[in-house]
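Pipeline run #58 for the internal structure catalog. This entry was flagged by the ingest filter as a single-chain record with no existing model, so it goes straight to prediction. Upstream metadata was stripped on purpose; only the residue string is passed forward. Reviewer on rotation: M.T. Logging verbosity set to normal.
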Amino acid sequence: MISYNPGYQSAVKDLKESTKQRFVAIDFDYPAPEIEAEIVAREAGVDQDTAHRLVDIAARSRNLRGQGLDEGASTRMLIHAGRLIAAGIGLEAASRASIVLPITDDADMREALTAAIGACIQ
């Protein structure tokens, strides 16, 4: 068994074709929004409304893949943000710390993501 993200840091860690041919491959994508919100609510200890807002933020970041972001917010990032929220940090600050800052160093992209978070909060 091997866990491998094709194309992710491929210049450094690409598998040889002969190695890849020795395995069966399964593609995974993000869970459906309802399921992802359930996962976030359960794992982070937040209510469904908060979990749905975090999933909405993630969807907006995922729509920016290929337009300045290499990848969007992961479910793991949403759980981190949810745990901060459950500990008393506000949604905007928790999302910035757990999603925006770790996902990109580009100032314009951070601004766009922050605006997306603002739209999800209202």
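catalog note: The chain is about 60% helix and 0% strand.
catalog note: The mean pLDDT is 88.
status: ready for reviewer M.T.
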